[in-house]
Specification:
alpha/beta, 2 domains, 7-stranded mixed sheet, two-stranded parallel ribbon, 42% helix, globular
Length: 259
C-alpha cells in the first residue's frame, strides 16, 4: 500500500495523529506533504482575531504557550531522545521518511509530483480545497478525517457546534473525499460521549486520540478488500460555518467552556 499524507503544518495536534500512523505503516508511507495551517478563507490577522475571540484572553495565552512548548520540545528533540515527536518534521526525521513542504496543492508542479509518486491512498488532514485533479491521482482515493458524525455537522468546527447544540455525543468520521465539502462516502466512524466536565479542548483532544486508529482501520480494511462505502446521505446533512462572535458569546453564556 503506497500512502501519501497531506497535513497542515501544526505542532500541537498533528504530530499526535501522524506518529502512530507512521509507526504502524512506515514501509508504506511515501512521505508527508506539509501545507500552511492558514487557508484562503481565513489567513493571517483574521485567523488570529478569530482564535482570540474563540479562546478569550486566558485561552489565547494558553494556546500560545502550548505552541511555544511544542516548538521548544521539537528543538530539544534534536539533542535529546524524547518519548514522542513534536512536529511533522520531527516525525519525518525520526522515521526516515521524506518531508515535502508545499505552498499550493493545486499547482501543476505539485500535481505532477504526486503523479510520479503513484500513491494508492492520500490521507488529508488540512483545510485547503482538494480539487478534482488531485482527487483523481491516487489509485483508491483521498481519505479525510472529519471531527463530526457525518452526514451531520458538515463544515467548520463541528465540535463547537455539537456542544452548542447540547449533543450527548460527538464523533469522528473517516470518509472518501470528493469535490464537495464533507460529502464523500463514509468508511468508518466512532462516537465520543460528551460529559458535563468536557470543554471544547478536551473533546477535540479525544478526537485527536482516536483519529490514528480510525485512519489505520480504514487503511487495513481497504488493503484486505473487506471495506464498505456507506452513503453520506445529503438529505440528512447539516452544515455549519465559522462561529460568529454572537455564537461564541452564546456558547459561553450557556456555561460551556473552550478551555
Amino acid at each position: 500500500m503506497r500512502i501519501l499524507a497531506i497535513v497542515a503544518d501544526e505542532v500541537t495536534y498533528q504530530p499526535l495523529v501522524y506518529e502512530p500512523i507512521v509507526q504502524a505503516r512506515k514501509g508504506d508511507i511515501l512521505g508527508i506533504v506539509t501545507v500552511s495551517f492558514q487557508t484562503k478563507q481565513q489567513t493571517g490577522l483574521s485567523l488570529l482575531r478569530f482564535l482570540f475571540q474563540l479562546y478569550g484572553v486566558k485561552g489565547f495565552i494558553f494556546k500560545t504557550l502550548q505552541v511555544l512548548r511544542a516548538k521548544f520540545m521539537d528543538m530539544l528533540s534534536r539533542f535529546v531522545k524524547l518519548d514522542r515527536c513534536y512536529s511533522l518534521r520531527g516525525i519525518a526525521h525520526k522515521y526516515n521518511i521524506p518531508l515535502y513542504p508545499v505552498t499550493d496543492i493545486s499547482s501543476e508542479d505539485f500535481l505532477k509530483f504526486v503523479e510520479e509518486l503513484r500513491p494508492d491512498i492520500i490521507l488529508s488532514s488540512q483545510g485547503h480545497v482538494v480539487g478534482r485533479p488531485l482527487l483523481s491521482i491516487p489509485k483508491i482515493g483521498v481519505l479525510n478525517k472529519h471531527a463530526g458524525m457525518l452526514p451531520h455537522y458538515r463544515g467548520i468546527y463541528p465540535v463547537f457546534w455539537a456542544m452548542l447544540n447540547r449533543e450527548d455525543e460527538i464523533g469522528v468520521t473517516v470518509h472518501f473525499m470528493n469535490e464537495k465539502l464533507d460529502d464523500g462516502d463514509i468508511l468508518c466512524q466512532e462516537t465520543i460521549p460528551v460529559t458535563p466536565e468536557d470543554t471544547f479542548e478536551s473533546l477535540y483532544r479525544r478526537v485527536v486520540e482516536i483519529t490514528p486508529k480510525l485512519f489505520l482501520t480504514a487503511i487495513e480494511s481497504i488493503e484486505k478488500g473487506n471495506y464498505a462505502r456507506h452513503p453520506n446521505e445529503k438529505e440528512k446533512a447539516t452544515y455549519y460555518g465559522y462561529p460568529t462572535p454572537d455564537d461564541i458569546k452564546k456558547f459561553k453564556q450557556m456555561g460551556l467552556r473552550i478551555i
